[in-house]
Amino acid sequence: IPEQVERDQSRALANDAGTFMRVFTDPSATMPEAHLLSNGRYHVMISSAGGGYSRWKNLSLTRWREDPTRDCWGTFIYIRDVDSGQVWSAAHQPVLRSARSYEVIYTQARAEFRQERAGLLIHTEICVSPEDDVELRKVELTNRSSPRPLNLELTSFAEVVLAPPG
């Protein structure tokens, strides 16, 4: 008997322009939801937990494996509080630390990750340029925890392969 898998709590919303968006709130779902951003030459696949790949034409730019049980491949942004030593990632992967709130929003043009961790709001947007073969990642951090400034360090990471996907 095949095991039944419950889908993540998600909702599809339509806005006035007729485009749809999908919203997910469970970063550790059994089967992560995937979203493909592309301009026809440059492609980014991103999961609802933040894993995925980047490809240009017939070349893999970052390492990725077709394994639904592991979602730890892709381009990641690490956030470290220099004073406390705590480390998070801009999405759930690869650090896998639970957040007070977590939301992934997929639209036709971008993928957005929103989370709150101890008063720190982390908002990440990922898109592919329609004109140029490049992906853009923007991270916005908002300190709502206290009047004191936070001393944060951001580090980006990708395992670059530059080879055919196989």
Please supply descriptive tags for the structure shown above.
166 residues, 6-stranded antiparallel beta sheet, mainly beta, disordered N terminus, globular, 5-stranded antiparallel beta sheet
Description:
With 166 residues, this protein is an all-beta fold. Helices cover 0% and strands 49% of the residues. It is built from no helices and 14 strands. The strands form 3 sheets. The chain has a 6-stranded antiparallel β-sheet with strand order 1-2-9-10-11-12, with no helix packed on it. A hairpin with a 5-residue loop joins strand 7 and strand 8 (87-89). It is globular and about 50 Å long. The two termini are 33 Å apart.
Biggest β-sheet: count, sense, barrel? 6 strands, antiparallel
Order of helices and strands: EEEEEEEEEEEEEE
Number of strands: 14
- The overall pLDDT average reads 87
**Cα-based radius of gyration, to the nearest Å:** 17 Å
Gross morphology is globular
Class by alpha and beta content: mainly beta
* Ends distance: 33 Å
Percent helix among the residues?
A: under 10%
What ranges have pLDDT less than 50 throughout 5 or more consecutive residues?
1-8
Number of helices: 0
Strand content: over 45%
Strand order of the largest sheet: 1-2-9-10-11-12
What's this model, at a glance?
The chain has 166 residues and is mainly β. Helix content is 0%, strand content 49%.
Please give the structural blueprint:
Blueprint (H helix, E strand, L loop, with lengths): L9 E5 L5 E5 L9 E5 L3 E6 L4 E5 L2 E4 L12 E7 L5 E3 L11 E6 L4 E7 L2 E9 L6 E9 L8 E7 L1 E4 L3
Antiparallel strand pairs: 1-2, 2-9, 3-4, 4-5, 5-6, 6-14, 7-8, 7-13, 9-10, 10-11, 11-12
